[in-house]
Specification:
Rossmann fold, Dihydrodipicolinate Reductase, domain 2, six-stranded parallel sheet, elongated, binds nicotinamide-adenine-dinucleotide
Amino acid sequence: MKKKFDLKITVLGSGYWGTIIINTLYKLGFRNINVYDINNKNLSILKKKFPKITIKKNFNKILIDKSLEYIFVAIPPSQNYFIVKKLILNKKKIFLEKPGFINKSEITKIKKISNKNTRLMFGYVYYYNDYILKIRELIKKNYLGDIQYVSLRRQNLGPIRNDVDVDFDLTSHDISIVLKLFDKIPRLTSFKKYYILNKKIADISNIHLKLKNISIDINNSWLNPTKERLIKIIGKKRMLIYDEMNLAAPLKVYNQYAKYPKLDYFNKNFLNSKAYIYKGKSKIVKVSSNPPLQNEILHFLNSKKFNTDINFGLKILSLLERV
Ligand SMILES: NC(=O)c1ccc[n+]([C@@H]2O[C@H](COP(=O)([O-])OP(=O)(O)OC[C@H]3O[C@@H](n4cnc5c(N)ncnc54)[C@H](O)[C@@H]3O)[C@@H](O)[C@H]2O)c1
């Protein structure tokens, strides 16, 4: 990578997430930032916030300008297909915000036009989250015992998307977390979605999945009065809660479990047999963490192969397309 302050970076999209990406790039020390958006109002708000950005008015000029190699795409997913296709054909290095596309067909076509030199990374920020990495470590070390159940809840009032369901928008994050924790895509067992504000776009989604013996529930909504970002993992030895909204102590492990007595005892004493509950202490797990978006951006700028590459994105969209 060139000296980071010199690197020319272009961000497509100056909305909510584009602004966060630009802020993070500045925090990392990048100074040569170009921005393109079709909405002049958003651009002028951004220019007030970051007076040193360069506004680009013409997308085709970005495409043919060879000095603009690194492109971050943070526009609505329904706009991505034609833009990403052109970026690939012009050999750009592309950071594409999740979910990337609005269906499996688009991502499959993009995969077909890609080749070994294509550099396309999907922006699945939880994959680069140090807390998720720590939870993965605890699972791999068997600290929680065999995992029996995982619950993921992502709730808030908005942002409400008009081009994708709550699944493509939010559940895509949770599937990326499951992939990071267990290295495998789970199997869809059932789902229930609610279309409340718009008959065509689900606002609330409940998805049930299975990964070997692990049952997984994902319950997401953008129609909720409070913000929740909650992961619970129930192991045979311990239980874990990762609550992103609890800033003081987001990750806690509970030394507690429940189990029935052994099967022959259970059979003999069926009516009297009760599940045994063990309640030990809980402890806060300290994690030295960098902001996940910083980790993610540095991975993009420093790597030739991406953890969240097109195959990663395709696995997630293939599952979500069935919901
Ligand atoms: N990783 C995360 O945690 C996270 C969080 C929020 C959003 N996102 C993703 O970021 C992307 C953008 O979401 P957002 O919340 O910033 O949306 P937003 O609506 O706030 O902003 C989108 C911006 O894109 C611009 N735009 C639309 N079509 C365009 C086009 N054809 N060319 C150039 N600009 C165009 C709009 O004018 C707007 O300024 C989505 O893919 C979303 O899923 C990711």
